[in-house]
User: Fold this.
Amino acid sequence: METSNLNIFFAEKFGCSGSLYFAPGRINLIGEHTDYNNGFVMPGAVDKGITAEICANGLDIVRVYAMDMPAEQQYIEFAINQESKPNQHWACYIFGVCKEMIKRGVEIKGFDAAFTGNIPAGSGMSSSAALENVFSVALNDIFADNKIDRFELAKIGQATEHNYCGVKCGIMDQFASLFGKKDCLIRLDCKTLEYEYFPFKPEGYRLTLINSCVKHSLGTEYNERRESCERVVEHISRNHPGVDSLREATIDMLLEVKAELDETDFSRAKYVIEETERVLTVCNSLKEGDYDTVGRMMFGTHWGLSKEYTVSCDELDFLASLAEEYGVKGSRVMGGGFGGCTINLIPESIHDAFVEKAVTLFSEKFGHKPEVYEIVIGEGARKL
Ligand code: GLA
Assistant:
């Protein structure tokens, strides 16, 4: 990412220069809404992300500029020992990371920072995890005597979301942004945090995002889905004490308690149990180069998310249906849902024609153009 503008901006604001850090956003091939159910996910880091310049300032205040925000929302400062959250939402991520690091014994002192990013807002590529990670990696580097390991940094990002930003998310986004590796997807077991890199260069295919530009922001609706899953686990575990998440549950176990469950909770849990299976199927199919199966699983995820988990929208359903019709191998809503992108596994031979068609037909139907990004799988968060 071009950093010279950031350097100039930082020097203008603070009259000095600092160290540069970068944390990427992420894509996810499959395994959606499985992370907080202790299941499997298959994400990778992207080449887009957030770059921050940071320097200790010898004071007990934090001063930060979000370079890409409108001028009146660009600046925030807070005292290191301040209890109340800053009044800009973007700053809560940084505030939360500081608090969570202090909780873990890091002596965070005052610092000056400015950051800029190139992850399209609301696209479902997790700019929030990138923001948490760029700060946790930097502050760990600058202030921690005993360095916190990357597993704990991922938990710091997740705890920031839970405690300061109102989203009871899983760990996938923070993990992918920290552990990303060029040209690899990561199969992560969200129960044990065991992970394995899967080289991903599908011969003859392109992995492309189509952004519906319906802005999503996760909050109440996301949290409600998590609560549904937890309620179902409570019911199942009465019959099966070993089950403490949907990861351990089977469809048969779910059917046993069907009569006790709300219809919505039932459908949501069914989706999650089936999705955990789909991720494992995709892992095996990738090893065999069987992209037909990979693609079929992706469509399965899409319609599960749309009809059972109900986190899709007309625009995303339209894009997935169109993909199915035009012979795209797999297509589905990516990330938390409610807007953002579809991720598409497209045969090279039809890539350009399909993308053109999708942009035209989508624009005609919804009155605005979707954005298209070719995915480049990159490295995880780092000092530049
Ligand atoms: C968001 C959350 C993740 C995960 C996805 C859905 O991106 O931050 O933890 O739950 O939604 O898979």
Remarks:
- The chain has a mean pLDDT of 96.
- Residues 4-200 form a domain with the Ribosomal Protein S5; domain 2 fold (CATH 3.30.230.10).
- Residues 322 and 334 are 16 Å apart (CA to CA).
- DSSP finds eleven helices and 13 strands in the chain.
